Structures are given as C-alpha cells and as structure tokens.
Amino acid sequence: MTSALAPRFARTLLLAIMISIYCATPAAAHTKLASSDPAGGSTSSGAVAAVTLTFTLPVTPLGDTVVIEGPQGIVDAEITQAQDGTAVVATPGQPLTDGSYAVSWTVTAQDGHPLEGTLAFTVAEDATQPGATPGASTDADPPTSHSAHVMGSMQDHETPPFVDAAGRFGNAATLWGWLVAAGGLAFAGLALRGRDLVDVPVVLAGVRWTGALILAGLALRVAARSVTLVNGDIAAAVAPSAVADALAGTTGWVIGLQAAGALAVLAGTGRTVPGSAIAAAGVLSAGAGFVLDGHSNTMEPRWLVLTADIAHLAAAATWLGGVVMLSVVLRRRQQDGRDLDAALMGARFSVIGAVTLAVVGVTGTLLAIAILDRPAQLWETDWGLALLAKVAVVAVVGIVGAYSHFHIVPLLAAATSRRRHGRSSGDALRRSATPETALMIAIVLITGWLVGASTDV
C-alpha cells in the first residue's frame, strides 16, 4: 500500500464502520428472562396471587418495573425482589381472577444495560374451560420479548433509529476520549525524554481536552438511554424521573466515575507530567467506570476476567493514545518548521507499541473466550462478526506498526547518525501515524458497539 493510498483506505474503512454501526440492529444485554410464573401464553386454572419473573442474573428494578394490565385496566401491584435479585415479584392488591392479562417489565442488568419485555397469560377459574388444568397453567414457554430498546407490541412510541445510534456514538466518544487521555499521559511520560521534553506541553494540552470529549459522550449516552426508556418520547425523556431511570443500577456508578474522571482531566492537566497528577487520578477513576461496564462485569471466573479487562484497557490506551500523540507531535513540529527529529521518540514508542499490541491480543482473546458461549457465535451472530471485524482492523494497524518499526525507525536512527534521509524518514513516520489514527477510530467505534450489544444477536 503506497503512502498516498493508505490515508484514503483508512478514511473509507472508517466511513464504512460508522455506517455499519448506525444501521446495526439494537441488541440486548447478557442478562435474560429465564422464566415467568404464570408462563407467557399460559392459562391458569385458579386465581393468580403474584407474577414472578426470574432472570439468568441479578437485576435492578427500573421505572415501574412490572406493569400488569387486565380486563379493568392497570392493576396496582407491589414490586419486590427475591432469590438474591434474580427474581422480580409483582403482588397485586387482590389476586388476579378471570380474564386476559398483559405484563410489561423493565429492569437493568448488572452490566448497566436496560432490558424490557412483554408477556401475556389468561386466568380461567372455571376448571372445565378448554385448555385449563386445575392447579396448573398450560403453554409454559413464554413468548417474551426482551430487548434493550423495544417493548414489543405494548410500546406507545417507537424509539427513533438515530437515538440508538447516538447512544452508540456516545459510548465510542467516551471510550476514545479516555483512551487518548490515558495513552497521552503514558506517551508523555515514557516516550518523550531528553530534547523531546519540549513537546510535553503539546501532548498534555491534547490530554486536557479529552475530558470535554468524555463529558460530551456521557451526556449523549444518558440522553439516548433516557429517550429509549420512555419508548421514544423525547419530551418525557427530560423529566427528572426518566433521567433517574437512565442512571439506575450500576449505570449510575459508571457514569459518575467517568464524569468525575473527565472533570479531573479537564481541571488537573498541567504542563508537565508530575504536574498532571490530578489528571492521572481522573484517568484511573474513569477507567474504573469502564471496568464496571460491559459484558466482562458479569463473566466468570470474575478475577480472571477483571484482570484481563484491566490489562486490555491499559494496553489499548497506551497503544492507541501513543499513536495519536505521536501524530500530534510530528504535525506540530512540521507546522512550527522544526526538524522532525523523531528517531529516539519513534524508537521508544515502537518498543512500547509492540509490547502493548501483544497484550491487547492476548487479553482480547481471553475476554472473547469468557464472553462467548460457543465458537460458532463468532460467525453466527452480529456480535461475533463485529469482533472479527475489529480483529481485522487491529491486524491492519499492526502491519502498519510493524512497517514503522522495521523500516522507518531504522531510517530515523541512520538519519540521527547523519547518514541519510533525515526529514524524509520523519515525514514517512508522520504519514504512517495518520492512517493508524483513522483505523484506531474505527476500532473504538466497533468496541463501542460491542460493549452495548448481545452475543446472541
């Protein structure tokens, strides 16, 4: 691939990724409704004292949680939880008697994703009624609908497609901002030494403004989540109760940690690495939010998955943020008319990039094994195909990085020894960093979709 084709290819791939994410089907989280009593589609032969929904993992009540609608309208019911949070019980003031009933439910999974669904059943106290069995219910398999965004046939408003896309791009913006912030601090501390220290303020200025990007992404994410939970009613989404529902469960902790971290990055980034200690603490706070979010928060063995997740995030940030800041430094040097002089900086980061890329590959594999129930999900589901696409883009970035490591960096070292190709080698390193950055944006966009999607889609 020539230097002229590389940026064009990266931009085209990035555009394709953005379109794919926008058009992708909304998805549910890992937690699912395992069973209900009465079962969906069943006919009970006696009065029903309570409706019990049992999930595969513990859930948090969201909004009204369970709404029962019968022949006389909405039925008042007390909502409680049982079985260590995996069961939600709706107990009506009076047992449900003859008639057809529709139940809609909304909860939040452990990883912060909202889940919704509907089911219907019939109560026929006359044991002789066809299809009714005394003391039991028929058709025990519930035809439920559980989706992070759709309430089946009971929804009053359809959530506009752009709302789901906005939420996904909010996730991606937050992730990109954090990765660049963490990686930028690492790059300033590890790759900029000696005479390269003059560029530390340039890198830290970029780090500071990632805090604003993280906050913007969080606002977009909360807004989209609130609109989704009220089934597309944008006017109702701004109500305090809707916003509170959007922050229910672990989502409140995730958003809170990330927002606090973003504010610390904005206010605490100085002109030197030691003077940016508050920003570093903010990066750790926001990173903790990412660890609490997503599929890895519900996988077992917990200690192994969390360790792999933390290592994956740290390595990805060091790698991605380093590439971005390398491009920023070289571009600033070119704009200022300075000698690019990137030999030592390029050599240092080349080693860092190789190590972090290896860590990203190993930990990413471990996380995929933990999340996927079976290998066939890689090619049978949207989630698996998106993961394969991410791996392919990472591989392309790795090839570009290998080219820089084995070809451009030696030329830079030769130029430092005053043998040849000083400025042209520096230009080549800058040009290779530009498509790498574009490809990494594509990686983050895919990752933002993977965090909010189900492996069953």
Automatic annotation (TrEMBL):
Chief location category: membrane
Secretion signal span: 1-29
Disordered: annotated span: 128-151
Gene Ontology molecular function terms on file: copper ion binding
Swiss-Prot/TrEMBL GO biological process terms: copper ion transport; response to copper ion
Keywords linked to the UniProt accession: Cell membrane, Copper, Membrane, Metal-binding, Signal, Transmembrane, Transmembrane helix
Compartments, record wording: Cell membrane
Membrane-spanning parts: 175-193, 200-223, 243-266, 273-292, 304-330, 351-372, 392-416, 437-455
Topology term for the membrane: Multi-pass membrane protein
Domain Copper resistance protein D residue range list: 347-450
Pfam short name (any one): CopD
Domain CopC: 30-123
GO cellular component: periplasmic space; plasma membrane
Protein name: CopD family protein
